[in-house]
Specification:
The complex is a heterodimer of chains A (about 375) and B (about 280).
Chain A lengths: L1 H4 L12 E4 L2 E2 L2 E2 L1 H17 L3 E7 L5 H7 L4 E6 L8 H13 L7 E5 L4 H12 L3 E5 L1 E9 L9 E13 L4 E6 L6 E5 L16 E4 L11 E8 L12 E5 L8 H9 L5 E5 L1 H5 L20 E5 L5 H4 L7 E6 L6 H4 L2 E4 L2 H27 L1
Parallel strand pairs in A: 1-4, 1-6, 4-5, 5-12, 6-11, 7-11, 14-15, 14-16, 16-17, 17-18
Antiparallel strand pairs in A: 2-3, 8-9, 9-10
Helix pairs in contact in A: 4-5, 6-10
Chain B lengths: L5 E5 L2 E3 L20 E3 L1 H17 L2 E7 L5 H9 L4 E5 L9 H15 L4 E5 L10 H8 L4 E11 L2 E8 L2 E8 L2 E5 L11 H12 L4 H4 E4 L1 H4 L14 E7 L8 E3 L4 H11 L9
Parallel strand pairs in B: 1-4, 1-6, 4-5, 5-11, 6-10, 7-10
Antiparallel strand pairs in B: 2-3, 7-8, 8-9
Helix pairs in contact in B: 2-5, 3-4
The chains are: A alpha/beta (about 375), B alpha/beta (about 280).
Chain lengths: ~375, ~280
């Protein structure tokens, strides 16, 4: 340990700024941006730096002020028709040019782990040949001692590193990933995890324009259609209640029963394990787990799902997990909150019956109160 | 008139996490002991590449990087009728992060030469980053479409359907371009009889393997070793912690009549707050 203390302290040049790359669509800031500002505020305070935010779009109106109220000290805006919707090459150009303009690079750049953020972040990181950690669930600032002599020029004590913490190996491990040798240190952050600040109208911030200088090669790709599938799409990530089915259903028709159960709840959808999607009982849009969606509804009812790690990682943050399985040793009973051991074809109809009758009692009570 | 000559597909061998073998008690993976498989996401990329070949013509080249055992997935790809496989294997690649991996793979692509389209799986099951595809596109200065679940080629442009939050979008790109394929794309078809027979033949005649699988090193592709492996990786895993099992907190309801079981669960939880009024 004694030679650890003699490590030279190395401060990689940076301006201590934390930059959040905001996302907007249809004139609204995406929720993940407010979450990033919440997390970024904490990092900037720990670093003693400022929190800023880039916002690219068209007719941005009062959106920059909104970002300031959520914690940004500076909002850099690029307001241009070509930036109306996210497109890889134009967004990449504007952000790369913007970051290249700093004398000292920003310390940290954060993006949402969304279909935009995960499309754009790797390009920015590759351009600057800097480190990028995907899909983080925790962020922090702290020191790091690099003692591995295989790489002598990297050895040293680095204060103020970004700790990018993410699940790995099917979420059985939490990995702390660092890249203190080069700034900006970059991460994408999983939506729905970080807490946004409460908006504060008194928080002061600056708004600056950033230039948009696209090159002909940035037009090699063109967004030709955007389709919102509000009704058709299975909105697993925003449902309050998910009734999910696995191989234990025994047949594709089993999902009809799950549909009946789901219909008892407000804002509910049907989910599924990978196995039943693979054998074609239900379309992929319903799949929850490592190769499907990650969900955290208020209630998750797992029917005939054994609870393999690949499924668990997609739903184990749900508020209330009720598992129905006839195998008392099924792994799902290790992490569900309530487990019902029994035949789901007996359990679910009874559950539906009791939910419906309690609904009646609830209505009668309301009626009495109104009288 | 669509003129496709070369389709590249990038694939990776990953540990099979559903198999018990090689999973250490602390949750890490012993890659030497673990069962190996083709990254499940790459099956969709492979299908996309084969679809282009079948529909528009061209030759499919599969590229992988990894230890010598990774040749298994190139043989698997040959069974599915790819034309040729490239395997980049070099000890100096060990401990590459996504930036270093993308650097090495883009050098392989440049070394092989001409291509119209590059397909990658959306992400891998051992890294889950979805970063290597776009990082290669950046290095090669290509347009890209990630999260692509379908595509067609028209007048020398590729129109990709991207799955995005709450719907989808279509992006029209000039070629060459890079596409990362979502797992809502068509699943990989069965291996072909021709491909399977050829691989059987190659397994019996080791000397002929080299015609279909080219094994290359960093020196062959002219890669700068400083940009590869541990040295070329700007990030490191500083520590890992086992995520504690929640185990033991589950209340098991069993052994009574179904009616009693359900009323117990309803009484014990706040489930009634969510029923439709």
């Amino acid at each position: 340990m004694s030679d650890v203390k003699t490590l030279p302290e190395i401060i990689t040049p940076s301006n201590k700024e934390v930059i959040v790359i905001a996302e907007q669509s249809n004139g609204e800031i995406r929720p993940v941006t407010f979450e990033l500002l919440g997390a970024g505020r904490d990092l900037a305070n720990k670093l003693g730096g400022i929190l800023s935010c880039t916002l690219l779009g068209y007719k941005l109106n009062n959106l920059p002020e909104k970002l300031i109220s959520y914690g940004a000290d500076v909002v850099y805006i690029a307001d241009d028709k070509v930036l109306e919707n996210y497109q890889t090459l134009p967004y990449r150009r504007v952000i790369v040019d913007f970051l290249s303009g700093f004398k000292l690079p920003p310390h940290i750049v954060l993006l949402g782990s969304t279909t935009c953020g995960r499309d754009l972040a790797p390009r920015i990181a590759a351009h600057f040949e800097t480190g990028l950690t995907a899909d983080c669930t925790e962020l922090d600032i702290g020191p790091y001692e690099h003692t591995n002599k295989i790489d002598p020029e990297k050895v040293g004590l680095y204060p103020g590193c970004l700790y990018a913490i993410r699940p790995s190996f099917g979420e059985s491990l939490k990995a702390r990933i660092l890249g203190p040798w080069k700034n900006p240190q970059m991460a994408t952050v999983r939506p729905g995890i970080m807490m946004p600040l409460l908006p504060d109208k008194n928080h002061r911030g600056e708004i600056c324009n950033i230039p948009v200088n696209l090159k002909p090669e940035d037009y090699r790709s063109e967004l030709i259609e955007i389709v919102h599938e509000v009704n058709k799409s299975v909105n697993l990530t925003e449902a309050d209640v998910i009734v999910s089915g696995g191989f234990g259903l025994g047949k594709a028709d089993g999902f009809e029963l799950l549909g009946e159960l789901a219909a008892c709840f407000e804002n509910s959808v049907i989910g599924a394990s990978r196995k039943v999607v693979d054998i074609g009982w239900i379309p992929y849009q319903h799949q929850i787990g490592q190769t499907g969606k990650t969900v955290r509804p208020k209630v998750y009812i797992a029917c005939g799902i054994s609870g393999a790690i690949q499924h668990r990682v997609g739903m184990n943050k749900s508020g209330l997990i009720i598992a129905i399985n006839k195998d008392p040793d099924a792994p799902i009973f290790k992490f569900a909150h309530h487990g019902i051991v029994g035949d789901l074809y007996q359990v679910i109809p009874e559950l539906i019956k009791q939910l419906k009758s309690s609904k009646k009692t609830k209505e009668e009570k309301t009626l009495v109160r109104q009288n | 008139m669509v003129n496709i000559q070369d389709i590249f597909v990038l694939i990776k061998q990953v540990p099979d996490q559903s198999a018990k073998a090689g999973i250490n008690p602390d949750g890490t993976i012993d890659r030497a002991k673990a069962k190996r498989m083709l990254n499940p996401f790459d099956r969709y990329a492979l299908q996309a590449a084969l679809h282009v070949k079948k529909t528009y013509g061209g030759k499919v080249t599969a590229i992988t990087m990894g230890p010598p055992a990774a040749i298994e997935i190139l043989l698997e790809a040959l069974e599915h009728d790819i034309d040729i496989g490239y395997m980049l294997s070099d000890k100096r690649l060990a401990a590459s992060d996504t930036l270093a991996t993308a650097y090495a793979l883009h050098k392989v692509i440049k070394y092989i030469g001409h291509f119209d389209l590059i397909f990658c799986g959306l992400q891998t099951t051992d890294g889950d980053t979805a970063q290597v595809g776009p990082q290669i596109a950046e290095r090669l200065n290509l347009p890209q479409a990630s999260y692509c679940e379908d595509f067609k080629i028209e007048n020398d442009k590729v129109i990709a359907k991207r799955v995005v939050e709450g719907g989808f979008e279509r992006v029209k790109m000039e070629m060459p371009a890079l596409i990362t394929v979502a797992n809502s794309y068509h699943p990989l078809e069965y291996k072909s009889l021709r491909g399977a027979r050829m691989v059987q033949h190659l397994l019996r005649n080791e000397s002929e393997k080299g015609k279909y699988i080219k094994t290359i090193t960093l020196d062959d592709i002219g890669a700068d070793p400083v940009k590869c492996g541990l040295k070329g990786s700007p990030t490191i895993v500083a520590r890992t912690d086992k995520v504690s099992e929640i185990g033991g907190s589950c209340k098991i309801h069993q052994g009574q009549s179904v009616e009693q079981l359900i009323s117990e669960v309803i009484n014990d939880t706040n489930i009634l707050e969510f029923i439709k009024s």
